[in-house]
Amino acid sequence: MSIKIIKNKCTGCSLCVKACPFAAISMVSKKAVIDYDKCTLCSACEESCNFDAIEIKREASKTPHLEEYKGVWVFGEQKRGAVQPVVYELLGKGRELADKLKTELCCVLLGKDVKDKAKELIHRGADKVYLIDAPELEHFLDEPYTNALVNLVRKYRPEILLCGATFIGRSLVSRVAVKLHTGLTADRTALDVDEKERFLLQTRPAFGGNIMATILSKNHRPQMATVRHKVFKESELDTTRKGEIIEETLSKSLYKSRTKILDIVEEVTSTVNLTEADIIVSGGRGIKAPENFAMIEELAKVLGGAVGSSRAAVDAGWIPYSHQVGQTGKTVCPKIYIACGISGQIQHLVGMQSADIIIAINQDPHAPIFGVATFGIVGDVFQVVPLLTRKFKEALNK
Amino acid sequence: MDYLLTEEQVMIRDLCREIVEEKIIPVRAELDESEEFPHDIVKVMKESDLFGVYIDEKYGGMGGGILDLCIVVEELSRGCAGIALAFAGTALGVDPILVAANDEQKERYLPRIVKGALCAYGITEPGAGSDASAIATTAKKDGDNYILNGTKCFITNGGEAEIYTIVAMTNKSKGARGASMFIVDADTPGFTYGKKEEKLGIRASATRELIFQDCKVPAKNLLGKEGQGFITAMKTFDMSRPGIGAQAVGIAQGALEAALQYSKERVQFGKPVSSFQGLQFMLADMATQVQAARALVYASARQIDAGVKDVTRTSSMAKMFASDVAMKVTTDAVQIFGGYGYIKEYPAEKFMRDAKITQIYEGTNQIQRSIIALDMIKKGF
Amino acid sequence: MNIIVCIKQVPDTTQVKIDPETNTLIREGVDSVINPFDMYAIEEGVRLKEKHGGKVSVLTMGPPQAESALKEAVSMGCDEAYLVSDRAFAGSDTLATGYTLAAAIKKIGEYDIIICGKQASDGDTAQVGPGIATQLDIPQATYVKKIEDVKEKTAVIERSTEEGFEILETSLPCLITVVKEINEPRIPSLKGRMAAKKLQIKTLNAIDLDTEEDRLGLTGSPTWVSKVFTPPARPRGEIYETEPEEATTKLVNELKDRILQ
Lengths: 398, 381, 261
What we know:
The complex is a heterotrimer. Chain B is of the alpha+beta class. Chain B has 11 helices and 10 strands. By secondary structure, chain C is of the alpha/beta class.
């Protein structure tokens, strides 16, 4: 690898200086100069240069028999026998990609006594389901799951493998990608394919969501990506769909795990899981006291949503950490996000700005939250929120 | 302004600023309201080695001096003067040990203090405030012990400290020359606490009565010799006054920063109020006074650290000037905040309440002026 | 017990401002800090040492200025610090990063537990921790919110899930990635800060690491960025500055149909 400026081509236009997200390029005597300590070889400058004056050399290795890899795969995550909703979303997107590439859509299902779920995956759009049904796979464990998925990939060679960016998904595919020595990208917000080159084009926000990066994996297969829940629409259920279920087995030694589950604890929460919620009502520093969260809960209840919060409210001890939205909390993308008394620090914004509709309620008209808001009300949260609750109650009961 | 701090002193300052930003500012209003002692923050101070900054490395400390101590007090007070007192009150209680303790006593107490055992200094009594020679608490020799009887009041860290340095009369007939200084452990039989005061400011600090009823203190806890208590107390005051000055500077700095910030955010007539000249002049005067006060406090601390013999006048000036500045600057800060300065939602009024005590304790500013004038009349310049 | 903590230096997002004209980040004058999640990893490593004895080695891969992150880790109580730095590592994606860090860990020597933050705040991939574990062929537990018990050959930990948590027993050596709930990072003490000032940081370059050249940096990275662009700015929303009564009525009218969907 290397990056260099081809001096006689550089016109000193400084487009690359503006394009560099890392402030690694400066102009010295009207020629671009790269600060190698800052440069991450992200290639934004190469892209921006109109004179081919920037050259990045990539001498990458290649997956052998690359052209033999065919088909789009989705990892069918299940917990206690229930297929996770993100899988249906991936099947929706996967169907679209597979159709574009004129190839098949397959789903991998690992678990114990989950055969009946394989049919469901076909009804949701899969052409084939690769199933390994074994007692050792009842609950997710990194090592046996990794071995199972790696073996299937080696045998059937998919060109694309998608997985939900869940706790399980992120742990699993990180291991799988290393074993397969292939590329993996995280938390895609947009996926597309280059039909001619058969590249998976994976776009995601970088650096707090203000720069978008499109990443691809030219020379390695499968092209792997994790996708957050709620980014894509669920595929339709069609019980007449037909498909093939291919059962596989794994040799005993591959089920070996150096970790074992002693207990699974489900924490009882009265509210909806934040990352699952379509509507989130969040409170921040402006809520002022723990008891005032009742007002937030009330609005959430009327809207059938979940309660979130900013870090300030969690740090003040007003609400547990599990409700925190933002950089050190949860990343959410609900249909509607209502921020009450939240100023909108960048750390909070990165956790919620991909919501479809953002509503900001804040006393300070200059609060940054209004910069991302679809609708905003400048006013006292203690007046506005109860009024909203009352009016929504009336409007929704009609 | 560059105060020419050493690398270590800058490190101490940075540490304190982190504690203020992360731990003190988020809770100061609440502790002020509830008058709760800041146990959690004291734990952080302990774990970050703050209590040892001015204590010899021989005892596990950092080996710094009064200037290091002042930096800590100033920076913590910038966040909350009440919380800072857990540290400053301890330093005050330790000063007599540094001034008068023998090696055995230092060996016994200083390592504990470095590890964060809180201390308190007990001289004031209901009938003996600025007039320290009117002390009524007595200590009577009884074999290997002294028996203490009497009541101390307004004692900072009272009830929270593990170690107390107490002035008591071993020979009442000799007046001030009959006073002696003792180290008293909190668990000594006969030693109890009286009422906890409700205060105007520094409300997160504990201010309490100490009651000694036939309290048996081992004779080996006598600091120096019998009759030297008053001298030790005076030397303690010389050492401790820059610390009060530092507290005042910290309060003033905190108020100034809050006022500056607010003046840039508050918009009236379509402009931030900081663009109005009347307010600019106030800010300029405040900043200049704070800087002058800090320069004097640091100079007096450096003088003590350098071993200058007669430091009384300068250290009185530092305490008196800095605390008057704190009162003036915090009052002006409230003014800049306007109506919001008068309500508890904003920090301005707390700084003003906290500032007042610095003009009163450790010798009122009237006493300081007397000390300065008398010293000058007697010795010239 | 030997503990290794892997950290990353990232831009301090608390200082990041957005240029309202271009809608891009203003990077000028932004300090670098330790990735917030790695602070919990450092704290947990130091707590394990305080409880069970042993030493904590901290390592980071990055440019020479990442030394300051290592010094901060040492000020919190880590004993040794390694900077994995070489021009050959530039442009590494998560696969190449995991490979390089695993090579560095082999070089450092024996270990019982490796601790990483759950993800870096600038990349959010959460892939490097598991990547290291896989390269080293050791078990892993991600999103750990509590270490219940550590014995000579095993550890019992609590791993977060969407619904709650699982209690896992893992053999040692293992790698864990930790979440915020696990602890509250300490403010470095004065003695820690002094120790950090004095400590010599060991630098490991590509030659020190015994690595295969074509697995490093951009060459060793299957993924690469083909395009970086500024997303279209979110259109300025509708902000009501009228009386609450009127504003809430308008808002409810705008939204009620979408909620009923």
